[in-house]
Amino acid sequence: MSGFNGRFAAVFFDLDGTLVSERTGVREARTAVGTRMLELGLWQKPATAFADTIEIVISGILEDNDWQWPTWLHSEEWLTRSLGVAGVRVNDDEFKELVGVYRNERSDRAAPIEGWPEALSAARGHGPVGLITNFHNGPMQRQKIRGAGLEGQFDGVYISGEVGVWKPEPGIFEHAAQDLGVETADCVHIGNSIISDVDGALAAGMRAVLVEEDDRPRPAKLNGDVVWCEDLAEVAEWLRDG
């Protein structure tokens, strides 16, 4: 861990993959979609087989995008592609129901990543704490925040689908800073995506911290303007030392 030190007027966090696990409950939620398809008579194989199809489709998309989650990859998109691969045809009402099954199961099973209380507490030592997250459906993302036990932990929650701007566009970072009454140059954003979080924060004039928790090596493209932390415990330590 290395990089700049100092006090910040506000500290912002990303949600998915930073404070909330992107893995917990995902398999169960995808299997729940397959279970509902069985109940509707749309699918004859095991529910887990459709979950496998979803995972294959999403893995292919991620591989084509340098393993970064594209902003356009909503649940509607990967479900449409997965149904196509599986050769399943559904009507509009059935499609909406399947999307709802996934979102509800995924949100209710959301689990915070270890070390989040310490990271948020250390952030509070600087000033207001905000959440900047990409998701096109605000109520569903707020349901995930509640499911993970993070409701009430932030002075401002900024969801791209509500703000109308997606990370890495600087507008959502600028909007969040303005809402909290601070300058972007006096803020830091902490997230797990080089493109959405790091590049977006830097473009808005914020400092940036990249936090990784899957043992990947330090990305070569990072420079002195970006701090790299292995986990939230290290984020907390860095914020306390600032």
The main β sheet shows up as:
6 strands, parallel
Distance between the termini: 13 Å
CATH top level label of the largest domain: Alpha Beta
- CATH architecture of the largest domain, by name, is 3-Layer(aba) Sandwich
* Tally of distinct domains: 2
Low-confidence segments: none
| Strand runs, count | 6
Class of secondary structure makeup: alpha/beta
* Residue-averaged pLDDT: 90
Oligomeric state: single chain
CATH topology of the largest domain: Rossmann fold
Short description:
With 242 residues, this protein is α/β, with parallel strands linked by helices.
Can you tag this structure with a few keywords?
about 45% helix, about 240 residues, elongated, 10 helices, alpha/beta, six-stranded parallel sheet, 6 strands, Rossmann fold
Which helices and strands, and how do they pair?
Elements: E1 10-13, H1 26-39, H2 47-64, H3 75-86, H4 92-108, H5 116-124, E2 129-133, H6 138-147, E3 156-159, H7 160-163, H8 170-179, E4 187-191, H9 194-203, E5 207-211, E6 226-229, H10 232-241
Parallel strand pairs: 1-2, 1-4, 2-3, 4-5, 5-6
Helix pairs in contact: 1-2, 1-4, 2-3, 3-4, 4-6, 5-10
